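Let's practice the habit of predicting before peeking. Look at the sequence and jot down your guess about where helices and strands might fall. Then scroll down.
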Amino acid sequence: QVQLVESEGGFVQAGGSLRLSCVASGGFFRTYVMGWYRQAPGKQRELVATITSGGSTKYEDSVKGRFTISRDDAKNTVYLQMNILKPEDTAAYYCNARELDPFGGTWWGQGTQVTVSS
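Done guessing? Here is the structure:
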């Protein structure tokens, strides 16, 4: 069983920056694809960014050039650096870990709120 614990989010003004972290315990962190998702009120949860065990990254179009996902396998931690934040980035952000096997496990953190004021 994998447990994911996100850092506290926060309240930031538009144009500001915030870094989220997510620490994993249990399982085999270095083998997982790690991701960040977000869900705004009244909307579906959407993918923000993912990073593979080899370090390959993918981003949702609206965050490209502003957000950076990274991982530190020695610390079982994945990060999301968010720059030039916009009010539309306001959402609950969730850490995700999943096995490469499509029938394998997937795990979620409890979520952390990020609020960007205009």
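How did you do? The two ends are 40 Å apart (CA to CA).
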